Request: fold
Amino acid sequence: MLKKILITGGAGFIGTNTAAYHLKKGDKVIVYDNLSRAGAKQNLNWLKSRNDDFIFIKGDIKNYKKLLETFKKYKPDLIYHLAAQTTMVTSVENPREDFEINALGTFNTLEAMRKTKSKAVAVYSSTNKVMGDLAYIPIIEKEKRYDYKDIKGVDENFPLNFHGPYGCSKGCGDQYFLDYARIFGLNTIVFRQSGIYGPHQFGIEEQGWLAWFCNALLFDKPVTIFGNGKQVRDVLYIDDLLRAFDLAVMNIKKTRGKPYNIGGGPKSSLSIWELFAILEKLASKKFNFSFGSWRPGDQKIYISDISKAKKDFNWLPKVSPKEGIKKLYDWISQNKNLIQQAKVFKR
Ligand SMILES: NC(=O)c1ccc[n+]([C@@H]2O[C@H](COP(=O)([O-])OP(=O)(O)OC[C@H]3O[C@@H](n4cnc5c(N)ncnc54)[C@H](O)[C@@H]3O)[C@@H](O)[C@H]2O)c1
Reply:
């Protein structure tokens, strides 16, 4: 059945892939984005170059009037709310702007749904940062990485503990999304995502670490390791996230009003040193790196326990980090001109 899909932040990394996926299925796609992110213009051009048959609205998520008009005009029946200020560092530099985009922008989206009596399913990309630094979980320090001592991963029952302006603003959106299902009956789902990676990701030093390190290696730029390089994240290839979106939406009766921890899980976790080993092998060259101090609130290790997603909508990731990183590496190698245009390097 033809669907009308509104993607806020639809020119970003996850948004572009989501848009391309739905356009391929023949759905009607509306991209709402202010193109503020490095690479967003390049992503939009790419979307246009392969399929012009979608609607692009250059709009700010803070602009409630414009958002409401968009909802009234297009009456979407599926919404991905992805527009966001996505870096912790920027949120510390400008906490008000971060709040207005992430907290108020998410509230605007929900209000536009409520005011238009929307029956749409709406998915919100939240983040594992809403769990805080999790410093109370016992960990083991190994030669090249940290590991959890007693658990496989962090599930949805761990207490929320917003850290940093980005954690607070995303967490605020996360809680409003869940509450609008409870109080106003909206069909919302929250994905608390770990590191997602893949083509059309314009990694910068502050965000999108896999893509950032790929960029740096391919352009022979020096990198800083903040901390000791043993920090671990579970990583998820974009195609696996798109499948999770689909399955969660199809199973809305079960997933409605619930949060899900979504990442590669225990089988797909990587430290910086482990990533370096994979990339250095692919590129046949070595990183030029130095060390910096730990970033405030940085988790030494974060691995999602993804069993609730498996139980509720039968989802498990399929793409291994080795396989996925090769695809990301190849995409960057083939699109070096876009990376240059997007100005991802400060020096
Ligand atoms: N990529 C990840 O690893 C990851 C992990 C956890 C959560 N998330 C969340 O997933 C979502 C998408 O992430 P992404 O990696 O695609 O980020 P991205 O930065 O590539 O995309 C965000 C998009 O939002 C747009 N945008 C920013 N401010 C806006 C505003 N005021 N109005 C309208 N549009 C605006 C940007 O131009 C960009 O196109 C975000 O909400 C992010 O917090 C991502």
About this structure: The chain is about 45% helix and 20% strand. The chain has a mean pLDDT of 96. The chain has one domain: 4-341. The longest strand covers residues 121-127.
